[in-house]
Each structure stands twice: as structure tokens, then as C-alpha cells.
Amino acid sequence: MEKPSFTIPKVRLNSAAGALVMPVIGLGTSADPLDEVVMKAAVIEGLRLGYRQFDTASKYGSEVPLGEAIDEALGLGIVRSREELFVTSKLWCSDSHADRVVPALKESLRKLGLEYLDLYLVHWPISCKPGPDVHHVDEEDLMPMDFESVWGAMEECQRLGLTKSIGVSNFTCKKLGTILIFATIPPSVNQVEMNPVWQQKKGRTGGPTWSWRTRPSIQEIAEARGKSVAQVCLRWIYEQGATAVVKSFNKGRMRENLGIFDWELSEDELERIGRIPQKRMLPKEKFVSPTGPYKSLDELWDGEF
Ligand SMILES: NC(=O)c1ccc[n+]([C@@H]2O[C@H](COP(=O)([O-])OP(=O)(O)OC[C@H]3O[C@@H](n4cnc5c(N)ncnc54)[C@H](OP(=O)(O)O)[C@@H]3O)[C@@H](O)[C@H]2O)c1
Known about the structure:
globular; NADP-dependent oxidoreductase domain-containing protein; Aldo/ket_reductase_CS; NADP_OxRdtase_dom; AKR
């Protein structure tokens, strides 16, 4: 059994039955185009380094190579058992219809070669007409999501034991509030964009997060501390009490992104980061359409942009 280079701290998820803990840093698997061979090798390397949380989605096309990498790592003894891992996947908009949710999760599990997920997320708060090409969403296919029935089916996924926990992604406070009206299992995570340039000052919920971008103050802090810009951003996210999903398929950068647990940002540095002008980096205009449920970015993000 190989010893990982890093032990990543964990947080407890609040709605899961039993003691479900999530490592505070996970490896993202979204890339365009996705080179499955590179990704698979990166996941195996990531497992050697100590990554135990992996973020995929039916939309990313990365479920098969992620599953193969996990299987290989188990065979090589890099990981002792499936239970050591935290695997997240997501329900795509074309499957965000009550009768399609359980079959979509079963299909994700088939591709991953796993019996259960640790976390299953509603990828976006919008549905679209089911079609053969999941990677393409036509404007005229956008339709409102029936939050109550889709969330009911997500709860069914957890009850069936197909996933240990359920959550949402790209939901605003308002849309989360709608789910909470009828949820019998509240979302344990809201995976959203979060970085020093989009700090989620309103919507912070402690869910996982992705992305980091730079501004001069981050660059200056990084230089003064002898850290990389990525490390300053990730440390900032960690200190906010959030967890992060970071994509790198490069061994050096995967290692670098874990080097955030043995130092802290000062009050002054936190204050400077807090003053960075805010701008959502991924507004997702493609979900806004005159014929769809969201006619403006304001409606999609309920003013949070
Ligand atoms: N729920 C959602 O809707 C949603 C949306 C977007 C993303 N995500 C998740 O979040 C993950 C990350 O997404 P993202 O948008 O933050 O990242 P991204 O834009 O996909 O990738 C970040 C880029 O930064 C590079 N990088 C990583 N570490 C670095 C470092 N230390 N120094 C310099 N460059 C570095 C990576 O390149 P190398 O590989 O060459 O290092 C990568 O190309 C995704 O893979 C996905 O799992 C979820």
C-alpha cells in the first residue's frame, strides 16, 4: 500500500445519513476537449498524491475514464477500498425530469463502474428536452425545472442507496429556498463558482467550489508569501470554510494545489482580497433565452451576479 504524499482535511456533510465526510479539496475532471488517457493517468497520479475526492458529471464525459482510473488504483493498491473515496457526479438538464433521474444516476454508476456515489448533484436549475446529444443544449429546448418532482426523485436516489448524499449546483439563495420548502432531505451541498473575484458574498453555503482567477492584489500576496497565485486563491477558499474542486491534470500543479494546509493568510491579506471588485466569471448566458424559463441573467442568478 503506497502512502499518499498529503492528508487532506475533511468536512462533515450535514444531511447525509451516518458519518459522511468530504475531503476539502477534490480533483475536477472537466476539460474541453477531454483527453481520456491523460485524465486517467492524472487521476491515478492524484490518488498517489492523496486526492480522495473526484468531481465528474454526465455532461463532462469523464465518468468512464474516472471509473477506470479508480479501478486500476484499487488493483495497484494505491487505494485500499472504494470507501476511502468521495465521488460526485451530476444530473444533466436533459435528465432533470422526475422519471429520468434514477435511470440517469444508474447510467452514471454504470459508466463509473461503481455501486454508489457519495454525492449526486442537480447540475443546473433548468431542464431541457431530452435529446440524443447531451453535450448540446438548443435554446428552444430550455424549459423550467419542476423543482419539487425532480428533488423528490433525487431523494429517491438517496433512499435507494444509489448515492450517500444529494445536492444542487449553480443554485441561488432564492432557488435553494424553493427546494427547502418541500425537501424532506435538504441539499447537503450547493456547488457554485467561488474564487477571490467571485466570492459568493451572498450565497456562501459551504459547498464545494471551483475556479480561481487572479487580480494584482493576489499576485502581490503570492509573491510576498513565496506561494503561487493558485495556492493563495485555494487557501482563501479553505479559510472561508468552503471546499474546492480544482482541475489539473499536471502532476506538479496537482501537488502544488495541495500545498495550502501548513500556512495561513494574515488579516491584512484577507482584507485586501475582500476588497477585490466582484464579477461572476461563468455567467452561463446559454441558459438565458427569450423563450426559456430565464429571460435574463438577472432571472437566472436572482440578482446575484
Ligand atoms: N458544477 C458546475 O457547473 C461546474 C462548472 C465548472 C467546473 N466545475 C468543476 O470544477 C472543476 C474545476 O473547474 P475550473 O473552472 O475551476 O477550472 P478549469 O478552468 O477547468 O481549469 C483550471 C485550469 O487551471 C490550470 N491549473 C490548475 N492548477 C493550476 C496551478 N496551480 N497553476 C496554474 N494553472 C493551474 C489547469 O490546467 P492544467 O490541467 O494544465 O494544470 C486548468 O486548465 C471542473 O473540473 C469541474 O469538476 C463544476
